[in-house]
Amino acid sequence: MTATNTERVTVTRELPGIGTLEFTQTEKRREYWLLPAGNTRRSRMPSVTGILRDTWPKPQLLDWYAREGANAPAVLANASARGKAVHLFIETFLTTGEMLDFDAFPPDFRGYLTGAARFLWEFDPRPMPGGVERLVCHPELRYAGRLDLIALIEGAVTLVDFKSNPKGAIYKEAHVQSVAYMNADHRCGGEPIDRVLLVGIAEDGSLNPVEGNLNEAKKVWGSVLDFYAQLGRLDKALAA
Prior knowledge:
Strand order of the largest sheet: 5-6-7-8-9
Helix content: 40-55%
Largest sheet: 5 strands, mixed
CATH architecture: Alpha-Beta Complex
CATH topology: Lambda Exonuclease, Chain A
Number of strands: 9
CATH class: Alpha Beta
Order of helices and strands: EEEEHHHHEEEHEEH
Distance between the termini: 48 Å
Strand content: 25-35%
């Protein structure tokens, strides 16, 4: 068994005053379910990434699919496995102190894992209690997610989101995604966040740390949620 094994994973978190939040992941699906406090019936919560995927315009993605053609599914699967590997590497070190062997991963992930190790060395994050891969949700706004890390970095409580891609690029939606996580974490009783740090990890092992633009991203996330709700109402109307 390697560190990138894709078996079923289930994680739960008890949220005082809210209920039980459950995250389930398989090779093909990621789902969030909330069982409200005092209730016996749970409901599925849309994920932050799912909401952004359904609402965020990506004209460049069509060009990418045209270039990749039949190779697109394999490229996407490799990118997903790569992201999981980077997160597993960082999570394992921060929760157990163990530095996973690069040989436990596919050879083409080595540069990204080097970047992950460089982040741990250079930024020296000190995780807040339960701050690694933390489950969060916003029961009123109806969304959930699993943020990467909340840690003390240079004395500031920092929400960190990792993005692994060939150039270590940070795209606009990453700023919006981090705001969604921050708002949900606050609703779940999390500690006040001082800053957001988006960390691009490139294929050559280099890092691209970018400060989150919170003010503008908050406005955009509100608009995204409104649009997502409108799409849902349209779906129901059409189904009727």
